[in-house]
Amino acid sequence: MERSRLVFSGSGGQGVITAAIILAKAAAIFENKHAIQSQSYGAAARGGSTRSDVIIDDAQIYFPKVTQPNILISLTQESYNTFAPIIRPGGLLLVDSKYVTIEKKVDARHIALPMFDTVMKNIGNAIVFNICMLGTLIGISELINPESIIKVLGRTIPEEFMEMNKKALALGLEMGKSAG
Amino acid sequence: MKDKEHIRFLQGNEACVEGALYAGIDFFAGYPITPSTEIMEHLASRLPQKGGKFIQMEDEIASMGAIIGASLTGKKVMTATSGPGFSLKQEALGYACMAEIPCVIANVQRGGPSTGNPTHVSQGDVNQAKWGTHGDHAIIALTASNHQDVFNITVEAFNMAETYRTPVIILLDEVIGHMREKLVIPEPGEITVVERLRTSVQKGVDYHPYLPREDGRLPMSDFGGEHRYNVTGLFHDMWGFPNNNPKVVSELLRHLMEKIETNVNNINMYKEYWLEDAEYILVSYGSSARSAIHLARNRRARGFKIGVLELQTLWPFPADMVREKCAGAKAIVVVEMNMGQVVTQVKNAVDHPNKVFLANRVDGELISPSNIKTLLRMIQGKGV
Residues of B with CB below 8 A from A39's CB? Predict the structure, then answer.
C-alpha cells in the first residue's frame, strides 16, 4: 500500500485523538501494518485546535510526524482553517458539514458530510460522533477493514456500548461509500 | 482475539512500564512530571496487581531515597522523572553510586534548563546523566528509538543494575515517551532476567557487604534481614563503615569506576543500518535516530552511500566501537537535539575529529530528515 499520512483535527472533547488512536491500533494489531500515532501536546491544545497525526504503511515508519497529510479530517472551522493549507496536493479533505464551511481552494478532494447530524438523528448520542467519522473515512478511503475497528472497540469499551458504536460505524461507512 | 493479547499499541512510556514489569520490578516511588507521568500512572495500577508496591512521594528527592531504601531490602526498584526532577535526584543518585545500590531511573527528557519546555522534546540531559552528581563516578545510561527497544533496554537496565550494583539511567525523550506504536511483549524467558545476587553467608556468620567475590561482584543481604551491616555515602571499608585511609579511599574509587569502565563492551548496545560501505555516517540515538534512519533509507534508494549508527548505550560511552565503525567515513554527522553533547564524545573517539559535524535542533520540535539533509548538502559542498 501507499503510505497513508493522516491528520485528525477538531476541538477537545470531539474524540478526534481517540479516533486516531483506534484507527492506528486497528491497523497495527489487526492488519499487520506499521502504524504510528502522535498528537500535539501542550497549552495550545487546550481550547484551540486539537491535532493528532497517524501514519499507516506496509513498510517500517521512522520519522513519526506528518508534515503534509494526504488525508485531512477537520471537525471544526478553526481546525479546517488552520490545517487545510498543509494538505498534500490531490489529497482527501473530509469535514463535517454542520461545523465546517469550505472556503479555501486547496488542491484536494473535498468531502463535506453531515456526520454529526446523522449520529444525533439516528442514535441521539454525540459520544459516538468520532466512530461515525471513522466509518465515513473508511467508507471513502477503504484504508482498513471496518471489522478491525470493531475488534479494537471490543478490547477497549464496555460491552453495553458496543451496539451503539457498531451502529455509528455502520452509519459512517454507508455515508462514506456513497460519497466515495 | 486472545492470540493477539501480547501485541499492544501503546506509548513509549507504557513500553517502559511493560519492560520494568517483565524485568521483575517490585517497587516504584515517584513524583509526576511531564513528559514522564504515564510511567508512574500505569505502574500505579499495574504494580499492585502483581503484589508490588507503588508510592507517590512528596517530591523527587524523597522518591529517590525511597527506591534506594527499598532496593537495599532486596527489591527491584525504579523511579521516573524528567529534567527538573532528575536534577533533584542527583544527590541521592551519587549515594547509590557510592553505596553500590541497584536502581533504575527513567528520565523522559524535555527542554531545559530549569522548568524549560515541559511538553516538548529535547535530548539535553545526556551529560547530566553522566555528570549530574558530584565526584568521580561511573554510570550506565541507555536509550532507544522505538517501543520494542524501549522495552528491551528497560529489561537490560534492571539487569545491569543488578549485575554491576549501580544506578542505571533510562534516557527517553518526549517524542518516544508519548507517541504510540506497536509492541510485541516477549514470552517469559525470551529475554534473560538477572536476579539479585544474594550472599550465601549464613545467619550468625559475619557478612561483609563490600567484600567482592573473585569475579568482582558483591553479593547482597536484604537489609533488615539476617545480617547487620552499615551503609554510608562516605568512603567505607568492607564492613560498610566510614574509613578515610588513603588506601581504602583510592581502592574504592577505582573499584567504582572500573567495575563499569572495564565492562564497556558488555554494556554497549547499539544498532547499525547500511554501514558496510557508508561514506557518510549519521550517529544518533533516541527519537532523532528515527529521522536519521528515515533520511538514510531515502538517500540509499537514490544510490547515496549513507548509513546510521544508532547508539543505545550512551554511558559508558562506547568510544572503541564508534571509532571502528566510523573509520572509513568521509564525514560523520551526529544528529541530536541539544547544543552538542554526544558529538563531543564522538570527536574524542574517532581518528579524524575534523570530519565530525553536528546536526541539531533545539527549538522543542523533533529534528526532521530534511533538517539533516540540509547539513549533509552543505558538507558535500552542494549548498542548501
Answer: 178
